[in-house]
Design a protein that fits this description.
Elements (H helix, E strand, L loop, with lengths): L9 H17 L8 H22 L6 H26 L6 H7 L18 E8 L2 E8 L4 E2 L7 E8 L11 E6 L3 E5 L9 E9 L12 E4 L10 E4 L2
Parallel strand pairs: 6-9
Antiparallel strand pairs: 1-2, 2-3, 2-6, 4-5, 4-7, 7-8
Helix pairs in contact: 1-2, 2-3
Length: 233
């Protein structure tokens, strides 16, 4: 089960979607979904269920009602696939969690292992609230995604003191580029110190060890755009 996880029959969709909705509601934080995303899916699920009920009633079933049901179905499927893609992109969401969610897992074409070497992170420049960093392949001592890795995962922390083992890092996102720009919220004042770490992830999302934390200070509002933009929450 991979891209074809979404059922074809209407009643099967209703059952699957009800389960999917329950899972993303109960495990929203573990799946790294926002409340807005969960609420939007709930609205689409309710709309489809309502339209399906109408078309199931022969007394009021008509062409326009069927077309409205089919439209609701398409919108539900599109958003379900969008959320599934976001969940699958998270390295810390396990195969078991994906199966429980009902989106399945992709079969690996070949055996792969997690990266064993951490990247080095250096700050290239700070423009306003945008911090551009280089991700270094430590084995080749060059700025690049190393062989065997699919990309890098970026996490940040805001604070003056150096982060410790108990620090709760904020996951920023994944990037497939070795030059990445992180845009922090404008609500953070000028001079705020931010810390950044990265780790490579493999073809199946397996995370490697984390880099050493690097820090810099923000310089204020900016419209800078360079590399891949990851927005801090």
């Amino acid at each position: 089960m991979s891209k074809n996880f979404f059922p074809r029959a209407d009643l099967a969709v209703k059952s699957w979607s009800s389960h999917f909705r329950m899972q993303i509601t109960e495990s929203r934080e573990l799946l790294h979904l926002t409340q807005d995303q969960v609420d939007r899916y709930a609205l689409l699920d309710d709309e489809f269920a309502t339209r399906l009920a109408v078309t199931s009633n022969r007394a009021i079933r008509c062409k326009s009602n069927v077309e409205a049901k089919n439209t609701a179905l398409r919108e539900l499927e599109i958003y379900a696939r969008e959320l599934a893609a976001l969940v699958r992109a998270r390295p810390d969401v396990t195969d078991e969690m994906r199966i429980n969610l009902g989106i399945g897992v992709r079969k690996a074409k070949s055996r792969s292992v997690e990266p064993v070497v951490a990247p080095a992170v250096t700050v290239n420049k700070v423009v306003g609230q945008a911090v551009t960093v280089f991700l270094w392949d430590e084995e080749g001592h060059v700025v690049r995604i190393p062989r065997g890795a699919k990309g890098g995962s970026i996490s940040t922390w805001v604070g003056e003191d150096e982060p410790g083992p108990e620090t709760k890092w904020s996951f920023m996102g994944n990037t497939t580029r070795a030059v990445t720009t992180i845009e922090f919220p404008g609500s953070l004042p000028i001079g705020t110190r931010v810390w950044i770490i990265a780790q490579w992830f493999g073809p199946r999302g397996q995370p490697g060890p984390a880099s050493k934390a690097v820090s810099t200070v923000l310089l204020g509002q900016s419209m800078a755009r360079a590399g891949r933009i990851l927005r801090a929450a």
